[in-house]
Design a protein that fits this description.
six-stranded mixed beta sheet; 279 residues; 12 strands; alpha/beta; 24% strand; Rossmann fold; 2 domains; globular; three-stranded antiparallel beta sheet
């Protein structure tokens, strides 16, 4: 979605610093994410990726600098944010239907599991129409009526994304939504998210372990490491020069024959982008 003078950035950090206790997680962060962009947040374990998500939600105050979310102070715009936390697992015996899980995105914070058909009226019809709309949007129409516990990990994740989309957010925050999915499902969900950005005009900021399944769909990456944050187009950020500067030690970014990126020389054990060093 093109940025206009009337549209504030979906997320903007200006010389921002986050601390937990006496530890500085990251500092001097300058990040600008425009509306309608699909952005991945990358970095090694413990770098502060989830801290960035918490700061955007107003759950982690900054120790310095500023953060603005859809033009407002963090926490003020949460009604316009859809949030999918780190992977939740559903017990195989859970009988609640997938469509009811989606409905929780509209009214679960008020009533718990909705009792469809009891209250009736225009409000219920509007809610049912919206649930049906987002179920189709994520391609879950063929299994949404089944118990959530019977569905595969990829099917469950699509329904959870539908749940976060149900209230029509401007910004969607996804914390490791591809975790535990196989490569096929990772690519499929990434393509779905890209389509949502295009069709719904929703900004998506997604914490990810592995950039490879999603690289072709991204507008921007935010890479956090060694207390610093850099942001920009993937081809400008995931480079030997940029990561060497960010980590402060020699880093080499290699491209394998299959197109996958491999980062060599990190302070952590060297690993491919995809062996959980990006967290």
């Amino acid at each position: 979605m093109p940025q206009t003078a009337q549209q504030p950035p979906a997320l903007e950090l200006l010389r921002a610093e986050a601390r937990i206790g006496r530890r500085t997680i990251w500092s001097d962060a300058n990040v600008r994410i425009g509306q309608g962009e699909f952005v991945a947040v990358l970095g090694p374990n413990g770098a502060g990726k989830s801290t960035l998500i918490k700061a955007a939600l107003g759950l982690q105050p900054l120790s310095a600098g500023q953060i603005r979310v859809i033009g407002a102070a963090p926490g003020r715009a949460n009604g316009q944010i859809g949030y999918l936390p780190q992977r939740r697992s559903f017990d195989a015996s859970m009988r609640i239907r997938g469509v009811d899980v989606v409905r929780l995105g509209l009214d679960g914070h008020r009533w718990g599991v909705p009792l469809l058909g009891i209250f009736g009226g225009p409000r219920q019809r509007q809610a049912e129409a919206r649930v049906a709309e987002v179920v189709e949007l994520v391609g879950a129409g063929s299994y949404a009526e089944r118990p959530i516990g019977e569905l595969s990990g990829g099917e469950q994740q699509r329904l959870l994304i539908a749940q976060a989309l149900a209230p029509r957010p401007q910004l969607l925050l996804l914390d490791e939504p591809l975790d535990s999915l196989d490569l096929t499902n990772q690519s499929s969900v990434a393509a779905l998210i890209r389509q949502i950005c295009r069709d719904e005009g929703v900004t998506v900021i997604m914490v990810a372990h592995d950039v490879n399944p999603i690289l072709g769909y991204l507008d921007k990456v935010v890479y956090i490491a060694h207390g610093g944050i850099v942001a920009g187009k993937p081809r400008d950020i995931i480079t030997s020069e940029m990561l060497t500067r960010l980590y402060g030690v020699p880093i080499e970014v290699l491209k394998a024959a299959n197109g996958r990126l491999v980062v060599v020389g990190e302070p952590e054990a060297p690993a491919a982008h995809g062996n959980r060093h990006v967290r």
